[in-house]
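#onboarding

Welcome to the new folks! Below is a worked example of what a typical request in this channel looks like: someone posts a single protein sequence, and someone else replies with the predicted structure as tokens. Don't worry about understanding the tokens yet, we'll cover that in week two.

Example request:
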Amino acid sequence: MVHHITISLCMIVKDEENVIGRCLSSIKDVVDEIIIVDTGSSDNTIDMCKNFTDKIYNFKWIDDFSAARNFSFSKATGDYILWLDADDVILPDDIKKFKILKKSLDTSIDSITMKYNVGFDEYGNITLSYRRNRLVKHSKNFKWIGFVHEYLEVYGNVINSDVSVTHKKIDFKPKRNIEIYENKLKERVNFSLRDILYYANELYDHNRFKEALKYYTRFLNSKQGWSEDNIRVCNKICDYFESINQEYKARSYIFKSFEYDSPRAEGCCRLGFSFLKENKLYQSIFWYETASKLEKPQNSLGFFNDSYWTWLPHLQLCVCYDKLGKHEIAYKHNEIAAKFIPKDKRILFNKKYFSGIGIS
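Example response:
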């Protein structure tokens, strides 16, 4: 007899009246119970949640996201626990996949990852996604770790699913995280390697680049960071040096990122662009060609920008070959890029340009 699993959705919320209805409406038909932990809302969040569940708890906010999430997990009664943020939704196609997953899930599985789509271009194409442990076995009692940018520590039998969660941010709370970090520093809390990384990210996002660089360097020098994080840090430092026109230093960090894993399309395209700016067209072509031939790692938990793995290297190769007077090859690359973003104004401009010189 097939045992259909039960799923508890556990969420922590505060002042989410603009998004919570959208989130809960999207998932209500898949989960068996909804647990809401409110950390101090002053708007209509709780009233809106009452339309979906009566399992609503208050939790005194103590500058610690993991404490709140662990409290929400402690209230679950289902076989598996799903967690979402209030500004996440699960789109109809993914709900269908989720229902299939729920029916067929082998209960020896301890955790299921789902893709988290967090960045989109103006055409709705996904530009940034990564995997997160999203559905976990209740009896394993997995715990959240970290007061900000918390993560769920899982082990055992983990599988990757084809279900995606879509992030649809409306309200941005820019200062909240950095203030938590600064308070912890004042309290002389010892930062874990992960805290060092995420504090550096917050500093970077607040344009405090010199301080961010100091923490990023500490992170890389520890030689204990996860390879995916090391690669992202190298990309961030590269961005900074590019922004102050220190091209050589920027490039050195892309080459450094290759120490942590085989070259990624993101790094190859950055090198291509760096050489293109100096009009070193053959070096530029080498790196863009390399990017265009790479296979995107399918089951990695790392962060990927899909444009670098699809249309972007081809659009740039079109520019490089055109500058060299190799218009036929340039045209071909524009056509390949057009398969991914057919209505993009750059693609359309190039098509017009090529037809003007008699190539189509």
